[in-house]
Prior knowledge:
The protein has helices at residues 6-26, 30-55, 59-89. It has a domain at 29-94: Helix Hairpins, CATH 1.10.287.3510. It is 76% helix and 0% strand.
Amino acid sequence: MQQLPLEAYVLLSATLFTVGVVGVLTRRNALLILMSIEIMLNAVNLSLVAFSAYLGDAEGQLLVFFVMAVAAAEAAVGLAIVIALFRNQQTVYVDEVNLMRW
């Protein structure tokens, strides 16, 4: 069975991370911004697993579990904030929210 080179995984990871950054910078909807952040975290996970397998070391794969835990916590807290925002402001668009103003 032929194995993909490390460069293919790095290129895919960089592409996913770029898509996530573009999503965070261009989207107005808070849910889509959270989804873009999840794409960025998954890109980092992919590169960690690829380098871990390339180097023959399991530390990168163990670090992926911690990144997944952070992603799950971010999703839970982010969705709670979005729900509270929608209940108070009746919108999920981040440019229409001015809760920090006096």
